[in-house]
């Protein structure tokens, strides 16, 4: 019994009988998910009418069965071709929103064990069977892939564009701390660049990953309902940590007193004859801590490198890479387990707990006394440039 396979509307021949197909016959064409899949079931037994047999199959309400998994929402239709052979056709669409579309994508993922293999496609046994399970036709091997080269290329372009936007935002404007306000009487150095913020990095990191992944998945599947509960919980943990970190940066603490002590030292050095510019520069660096580079800023405070920052940065990176792997493997947002979410919460909670004890302004080394307000800087003295 000859078998044919149709992908993207074109039919190609498959050599051998149905039994040979079940034993390992392979189609030459590749079916891309989203295009109709058509298989020839061959001519009906001698003496049977093709139209009658096709009508009987249609009455059974058969669905597509791939690798032993029944794909919901893939009601097959059967008809006769010009040779008197029965053709079965079913949709392979993974697009759409709502529970039905989500169940269909989940069934394909289970059948495919992820949409992508290293070769870009997988050869799987395909048959028609009852919607409740089982098969009613002889399986035939079909080569299937999750998306066309065009869709994958377009999704990659959108992903890179969105991800680049967040990277640009981090380095250009939104990745640095903004809690340092000018101290009266102490000018902020020209071109001053505040340190990068770990909490802001984490928020932009996850916002970029989730947004870019969403756009890429939408490009391929056409589905707008792909955000999982686990993803929303993850963004809630990250957003909550950012809010708490911003609140902590703005609340009065010992750093304010140390900053005033350095301001007094700056004013004394500026009033000396001649002005002590080395002391002025040292005081300015303490009052307005400059950026030391991305990694030093993310991993340290005034006391040096901190292990709680390292653990948060490492876990954020590892989970982010894993998240992206699952997106490319399944064409969907991963449903993070309660254990992963709990570990992320513990990591963020540990970071914030230690952050409350961090010192962003170094302790003055001299015996400077904190004044009620910093003395004015002589008008003739200019602040050192840079920082």
Give a description of the structure.
This protein is an alpha+beta fold and 387 residues long. It folds into two domains: 3-146, no CATH class; 151-355, no CATH class. The chain contains eleven helices and twelve strands. It has helices at 18-23, 50-59, 98-112, 149-174, 198-221, 229-250, 254-271, 277-287, 294-299, 307-330, 338-355; strands at residues 3-7, 10-14, 26-32, 37-42, 62-66, 69-70, 77-80, 86-90, 122-130, 140-145, 300-301, 304-305. Strands 2-1-4-8-7 form a five-stranded antiparallel β-sheet. Helix 5 packs antiparallel against helix 6 (229-250) and helix 5 packs parallel to helix 10. The radius of gyration is 32 Å and the shape is rod-shaped. The N and C termini lie far apart (81 Å). The model is unreliable at 1-28, 367-373 and 377-387 (pLDDT under 50).
β-sheet strand percentage: 5-15%
Q: Assembly type of the shown chains?
A: single chain
Order of helices and strands: EEHEEHEEEEHEEHHHHHHEEHH
Helix-strand category: alpha+beta
- The number of helical runs is 11
Describe the sheet with the most strands: 5 strands, antiparallel
Distance N to C terminus: 81 Å
Overall average pLDDT: 84
Number of domains: 2
State the strand order across the main sheet.
Answer: 2-1-4-8-7
Ranges with pLDDT <50 over ≥5 residues?
Answer: 1-28, 367-373, 377-387
Number of DSSP E strands: 12
Question: Shape, please?
Answer: rod-shaped
Share of helix, binned:
40-55%
Radius of gyration: 32 Å
């Amino acid at each position: 019994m000859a078998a044919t396979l149709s992908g993207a509307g074109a039919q190609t021949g498959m050599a051998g009988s149905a039994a040979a197909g079940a034993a390992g016959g392979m189609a030459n064409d590749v079916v891309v998910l989203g295009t109709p899949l058509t298989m020839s079931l061959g001519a009906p037994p001698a003496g049977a009418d093709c139209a009658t047999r096709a009508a009987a199959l249609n009455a059974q309400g058969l669905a597509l069965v791939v690798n032993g998994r029944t794909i919901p929402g893939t009601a097959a239709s059967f008809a006769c071709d010009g040779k008197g052979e029965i053709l079965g056709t079913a949709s392979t669409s993974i697009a759409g929103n709502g529970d039905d579309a989500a169940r269909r994508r989940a069934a394909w993922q289970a059948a495919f064990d992820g949409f992508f293999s290293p070769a870009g496609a997988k050869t799987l046994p395909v048959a028609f069977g009852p919607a409740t399970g089982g098969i009613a036709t002889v399986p035939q091997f079909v080569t299937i892939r999750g998306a066309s080269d065009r869709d994958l290329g377009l999704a990659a372009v959108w992903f890179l564009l969105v991800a680049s936007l967040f990277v640009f935002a981090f380095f250009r404007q939104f990745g640095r701390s903004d809690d340092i306000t000018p101290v009266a009487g102490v000018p902020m150095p020209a071109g001053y660049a505040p340190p990068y913020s770990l909490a802001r990095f984490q928020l932009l990191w996850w916002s970029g990953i989730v947004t870019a992944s969403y756009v890429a998945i939408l490009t391929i599947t056409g589905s707008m309902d792909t955000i999982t509960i686990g993803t929303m919980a993850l963004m809630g943990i990250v957003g909550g940590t950012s809010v708490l970190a911003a609140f902590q940066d703005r609340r009065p603490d010992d750093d304010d007193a140390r900053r005033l002590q350095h301001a007094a030292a700056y004013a004394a050095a500026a009033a000396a004859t001649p002005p002590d510019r080395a002391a002025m520069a040292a005081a300015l660096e303490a009052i307005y801590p400059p950026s030391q580079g991305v990694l030093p800023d993310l991993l340290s405070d005034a006391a040096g490198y901190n292990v709680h920052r390292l653990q948060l940065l490492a876990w954020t990176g590892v989970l982010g890479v894993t998240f992206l792997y699952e997106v490319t493997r399944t064409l969907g947002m991963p449903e993070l387990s309660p254990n992963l979410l709990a570990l992320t919460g513990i990591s963020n909670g540990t970071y914030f707990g230690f952050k409350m004890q961090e010192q962003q302004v170094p302790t003055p080394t001299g015996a400077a006394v904190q004044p009620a307000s910093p003395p004015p800087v002589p008008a003739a003295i200019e602040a050192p440039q840079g920082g």
